[in-house]
């Protein structure tokens, strides 16, 4: 892989968000220089990575100039001063149609206003540089897209980035941006974080506003950040919390900053490995990654998460039904314009009886109660994020425990039961025996993002977790 | 025989065919042949998942969680 990035500014393009913000605040570098370096790197790498569907260069440079002007005027800059970021293209970006990975949505009128989370990051003086590739309508774990082509895994360009937030994972792993936003309905932040070797945060359901983003499954949709360090996740998460009357599912819970407690360590935390369901149907290296993390944390206990398989089944039913209901009109009017793999699943979803969905929603409360009881005994759980490393692009099946399974639905078999009840998870990148990265889910009780991120940070400090920029 | 001792059997293929055809008609989907085969395979997967979920003995009073509060 070749790309001429050997300029001084290039070092800022690949720096973590907290270092960029510190440098911009200190006046060591201007936001414009960082933004220009970032845009140059995007231009150089996109022919190979294909993470971006839109680059908002003029807007980014205008925002960067505004940040620099604010500093010159003596205003205290925000926590993400001059930090370039990009968002999965289901987030509204003023002036762009919100395509959500589809062909159909390109015919929508351009968004008139940014998504709430975009507004909040820019209010913290971050700089939006573009919108990112994703699986069509977020019904995907691969990062492949029938209309825009696949976002490619920067650590192995012939392999999947993971989905559906594949562009988000690819852009951060390639060092095109230090920070990206994605969505996670059944694992779409955690799967690409794992396959691309990144830190990712799926917050508690209802914690971050989803307003002005294109939905998939209202019962299960979450939004969250990708980054190459837990501190960057914490800074972004803290910038994005807060009330928003435009999202009826948003919690009224007060703002709780996690950045100040990130270095609190793990002493006294009861950390356990998820057993049973979470130790089967995976490649040995997926479990080895969990074991490495557990050993580094001194976690020796294994606990069973009863009914995890049924939780996944219920999430599958709810996803199929709510996704189909969302797209019924488009399936009627423009079925030929869908990605076939998405269309056929959505058509099947239209046939689901209400009794199946209601049972799944009722079971959700049962599983929630069991998980909350488990958290009386432990503070944090560790589980694999995916059953394997990044499959090759176009790969349709893999063999897990001797059973041939479809890749697309089963990359998320370890993530689905957890998001089913909205628990916060930090995805942590672990590298085993020199191969492509794997991910470990650090699972915490509701509203305890601080615990998940503290553990992620401890693993980073202990050298077990790392998210290097892919070499180009 | 009590209700719990007479579980609902999983739907057979012909039942799923009827369900899919009914939905395609009800939503006026201009279906093409190969789409039907793929959609049937997915509906079979959903039916299996739903059967597994419905095998869990939920109380009649159990509340669903359409807007979920963790």
Q: Can you describe what's shown?
A:
The complex is a heterodimer of chains A (472) and B (70). Chain A has a single domain, classed as Amidase signature (AS) domain (Amidase signature (AS) enzymes, Alpha-Beta Complex), CATH 3.90.1300.10. Chain A contains 15 helices and 13 strands. Chain A has helices at residues 10-13, 17-26, 31-49, 57-72, 116-123, 166-173, 190-196, 230-240, 284-297, 308-333, 340-350, 354-374, 407-410, 416-419, 449-461, and strands at 52-55, 84-88, 127-132, 179-184, 199-202, 222-227, 271-274, 301-303, 380-384, 397-400, 403-406, 425-430, 438-443. In chain A, the strands form 2 sheets. An 11-stranded mixed β-sheet of chain A has the order 1-3-2-4-6-5-12-13-9-7-8, with helices on both faces. The termini of chain A are close together. Chain B has a domain at 10-54. Chain B contains 2 helices and no strands. In chain B, helix 1 crosses helix 2. The longest helix of chain B has 22 residues, at 33-54. Chain B is elongated and about 40 Å long.
Task: Describe this structure in a few short sentences.
In chain A, about 35% of the residues lie in helices and about 15% in strands.
Q: What is the distance, rounded to the nearest whole angstrom, between the alpha carbons of the first and last residues of chain A? A: 5 Å
What is the CATH class designation of chain A?
Alpha Beta
User: How do the SSEs of chain B run, as a string of H and E?
Assistant: HH
Strand-residue fraction of chain A? 5-15%
Principal-axes geometry of chain B comes out as elongated
How many helical elements of chain B?
A: 2
Average predicted confidence as pLDDT of chain B:
89
Q: How would a textbook summarize the main sheet of chain B?
A: none
CATH-scheme architecture of chain A: Alpha-Beta Complex
| Helical coverage of chain A, percent range | 25-40%
Strand content of chain B: under 5%
CATH superfamily of chain A: Amidase signature (AS) domain
Q: Which two chains touch over the largest interface?
A: A-B, 49 and 37 residues
Oligomer: heterodimer
What is the count of DSSP helices of chain A, taking H or I runs of 4+ residues?
15
- Strands of chain B, count: 0
Tell me the CATH topology of chain A. Amidase signature (AS) enzymes
User: Which outline of chain A best applies?
Assistant: globular
- Radius of gyration of chain A (Å): 21 Å
